[in-house]
Structures are given as C-alpha cells and as structure tokens.
C-alpha cells in the first residue's frame, strides 16, 4: 500500500514538472511579436506545423531572433536593446528567456519591421545571366527565401525559384501590405515610376499611336506588379514582406493577375497541402506581349527604354509555373498568356503544347477562371522546355498531379 502511494505521488510530481518545464507551443495567430522579427530554428526559418498550424519548440531549445537592417533592434518587453540578433531559449509554454530577461514570446519584437536583403551571387543561370538571392542576413549568415534569375540587360526576371510547403496553409496575419522596393537592382530606373499609370499610357501611345492607351487602360484593366513567388506561399510575416521586391515581380495585366493566375496560385497551395509534401516552384516570364495599333498591326510593349532608346522591362507574353517534386521526380508546367486582347486565332498560335489539363480528372483540383479574358494551358515538362528553356535541367521521370 505504501509502495502504491509512493508511485502515485511520484506520478503527480512528474506531471507537475512537465507542466512547469514542458515544451513551448506557440500560436501563429497570437504568440508572435509585432513588428515581427525573423526567427531561425536549427539553421532554418521557423515554420508552423503543417497539421496544427502551431509552432513547437522543445524545452531548452534555442531560437535565433533577428531584426536585420539599419537602426533595427530587438525589443524585449518594453526595452529596446542595442542588438539586432539575440538567442532566446524555451522554458515552457510561451515563456522564453534571453540572458537575464524572462518573458512571453510575443513580447519579443523589433522596433521596426526587419529589412530583407537582395544579393547578387556568382552563380550563373540561363544565357549567362545571374542568380540573385533574397532573404535575411543574421549573424554573418544568409538565409535564403527565394532565388531569381535576373536579366540585367532587359531588367526582367526570367524566373524565381522557391519552395512551396504544406505549411502554406497557415499564415501569420496582421500588419499593413508593404510597398514594393527595388534597392538599386534596376540601376537608376525608378520602378515605382515605371508601373505608374501615366507611364503605362505614355509607353502604349509611343508604341501604337496617340490616344491608343484609351483602348487598353481602364479602371479594371491595367498593368500591375505581378508577384512571381506569391506572398501567400509564405507563412510568416517577415517572409511575406520579403516577397515585395521588384525582382520578384513583372508587368502583368490585371484581369489575368486576378483571374487565371490567382486561381492557379490558390489551387496549387491547396494541392500541396492535400499531398502533404513540399515542391519546388519555378515561376517565370517569357517573350514580349504585343498590342494592336489602329490598323491592327501588332507592336511589342516595353515599360522603359535604356540610354540607347532600346526597350527594357518588357511586358511578358507568357507567365508560367513549373512545379517539381524532387522526391518523386515529377513535374508539370502551367502557362498563362499575359493578355486579354488576343483573338482566338492568335491564342491558338501561342498555345505551344498539348493541354494536358483539359478533360484530365487528375487536374480536377485546378479550375481556371475562364471569364477573365485570358487563356491558360498545361504542358508536360519535356514539351514545355522545347519552347521555354530558361530553367536549369531537372531530372523528370513522370508527370506531377
């Protein structure tokens, strides 16, 4: 009897200890500070659990918390430190400590939103262009969110590579939608001015003739900053913020951006969540969109000119996503013609592969928004790269569904 009582007391003791010094479980919605820092766990960006949406940190596990950027500092409770990076350790629940500070995890924040970095690398991509990496630099280490193959001559991104994971189902909410920035990648070109409606109208009239802009620019149709790696593919606010760089955008007609392209982005996230496996996504642009003048002649459209009056920042003819499952060695390409102004004859000419989604039940998870005036189709990887050969060679043995 005495032994049984001792075992019972010992069990209660263990239960109490576990409650006091158990793991830390953080809610993506309620337990992250604002302005939200950058969080690194075991050398990688912190991410929610794909099933619950919460973030698990083991007892005594250390996270790196950073607020990179000029005059950006970590705030602990109401004290602004002189540090842009601190190590914090899980005690239990939502309680962490950093040095002598002990407090709730949401009391760890930045004095201002952290500043992401865009760096040119020494890695080349298609036709000797250069790979840029976008992410955050903390404690002399660079943590990459996505990479861009950038044409420094035409000032256009050929493709962006990022990983889409099942965690994309969950998002840290709050905060204002940031503005796009260019950080000197485009030289002296002010990208905000390039996308201004006044410039769009000027460039159309220069290419097609006076007042032709009135046929193409309306309240519902204009050229927008088309995200390549979309904001919603990233769970944490600091990651979402880093998607707002002009190297991660290209001119895209609004009807397509809010139509087929938005449908594809949403459907692909749902598909990755349902499959429970990450994929690599190459999102790119190709060719130059044309518009018809008053006589029906087609003219290429660029949003800027260089010092020799050559067109730069082309309005792409195509937007595409190549989805690659590295584990299964499967891939598929989704393509959108970036215009609602082509007739059926031109669309047929521009559709360069057999549409493998059309009538295929394996792609029932994708529903194009056919009323947006644009045209989209799906290609087998081998057929796609015969037309668009921007990407690095992928080992593809089958079709992604």
Automatic annotation (TrEMBL):
InterPro entries cross-referenced by the UniProt entry: DNA/RNA_non-sp_Endonuclease_sf, Endo_G_ENPP1-like_dom, ENPP1-3/EXOG-like_nuc-like, His-Me_finger_sf, Non-specific_endonuclease
Active site: 227
Similarity remark: Belongs to the DNA/RNA non-specific endonuclease family.
Single GO cellular component term: nucleus
Domain ENPP1-3/EXOG-like endonuclease/phosphodiesterase per the UniProt entry, residue ranges: 143-341
Classification via Pfam families: Endonuclease_NS
Name of protein: DNA/RNA non-specific endonuclease domain-containing protein
Residues the entry annotates as binding Mg(2+): 257
Gene Ontology MF, one: RNA endonuclease activity
Entries under SMART domains matching the protein: Endonuclease_NS, NUC
Record bears the keyword Nuclease: yes
Domain DNA/RNA non-specific endonuclease/pyrophosphatase/phosphodiesterase: 142-384
């Amino acid at each position: 009897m005495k032994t049984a009582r001792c075992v019972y007391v010992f069990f209660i003791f263990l239960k109490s200890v576990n409650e006091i010094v158990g793991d830390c479980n953080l809610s993506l919605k309620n337990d992250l500070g604002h302005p939200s820092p950058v969080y690194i766990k075991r050398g990688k960006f912190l991410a929610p659990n794909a099933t619950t949406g919460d973030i698990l940190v083991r007892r005594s596990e250390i996270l790196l918390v950073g607020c990179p950027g000029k005059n950006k500092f970590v705030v602990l409770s109401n004290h602004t430190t002189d540090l842009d990076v601190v190590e914090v350790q899980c005690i239990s629940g939502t309680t962490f400590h950093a040095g002598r500070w002990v407090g709730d995890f949401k009391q760890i924040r930045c004095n201002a939103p952290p500043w992401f970095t865009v760096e040119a690398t020494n890695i080349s991509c298609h036709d000797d262009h250069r790979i840029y990496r976008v992410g955050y630099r903390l404690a002399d280490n660079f943590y990459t969110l996505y990479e861009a193959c950038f044409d420094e001559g035409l000032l256009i991104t050929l493709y962006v590579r990022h990983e889409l994971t099942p965690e994309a189902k969950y998002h840290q909410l709050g905060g204002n939608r940031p503005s796009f920035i260019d950080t000197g990648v485009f030289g002296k070109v002010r990208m905000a001015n390039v996308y201004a409606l006044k410039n769009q109208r000027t460039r159309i009239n220069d290419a097609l003739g006076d007042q032709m802009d009135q046929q193409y620019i309306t309240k519902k149709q204009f050229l927008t900053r088309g995200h390549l790696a979309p904001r919603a593919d990233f769970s944490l606010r600091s990651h979402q913020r880093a998607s707002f760089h002009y190297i991660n955008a290209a001119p895209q007609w609004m009807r397509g951006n809010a139509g087929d392209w938005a449908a594809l982005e949403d459907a692909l996230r749902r598909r990755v969540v349902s499959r429970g496996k990450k994929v690599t996504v190459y999102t790119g642009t190709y060719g130059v969109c044309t518009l018809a003048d008053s006589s029906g002649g087609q003219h290429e459209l660029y949003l800027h000119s260089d010092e020799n009056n050559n067109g730069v920042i082309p309005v792409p003819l195509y937007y595409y996503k190549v989805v690659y499952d590295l584990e299964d060695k499967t891939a598929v390409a989704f393509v959108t013609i970036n215009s609602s102004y082509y007739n059926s004859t031109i669309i047929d000419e521009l559709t360069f592969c057999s549409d493998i989604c059309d009538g295929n039940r394996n792609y029932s998870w994708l529903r194009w928004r056919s009323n947006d005036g644009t045209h989209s189709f799906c290609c087998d990887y081998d057929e796609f790269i015969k037309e668009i050969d921007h990407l690095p060679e992928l080992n593809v043995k089958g079709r992604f569904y």
